Amino acid sequence: MTTVKGPRRSPRGALSGTSVYVGLTPLERAELEQIAAARHRSISSMARELICIGKRHVQDDPGSSVPNTGP
After folding, report:
1. Gap between the Cα atoms of 2 and 35, Å rounded
2. Which of 10, 18, 41, 71 could be cross-linked to 14 through a Cys-Cys bond (beta carbons 3.0 to 4.6 Å apart)?
3. Are 47 and 35 in contact (CB under 8 A)?
4. Residue 39 pLDDT more than 70?
5. SS3 23
């Protein structure tokens, strides 16, 4: 008997041992849950996407000292 593989939970190249833990207030957590549910995504997947969006926003800021290292 073989087990059918489900969908990948992380994008290719993302290592499962490189987790980042973020403390959220109950209100922030509730907002994240609502956003994730509206987009049919897991909370973790939505948090990762929001971090990536924020990173691009900071890198695009001309006054930012954060280097633009690509996507």
Report:
1. 36
2. 10
3. no
4. yes
5. coil
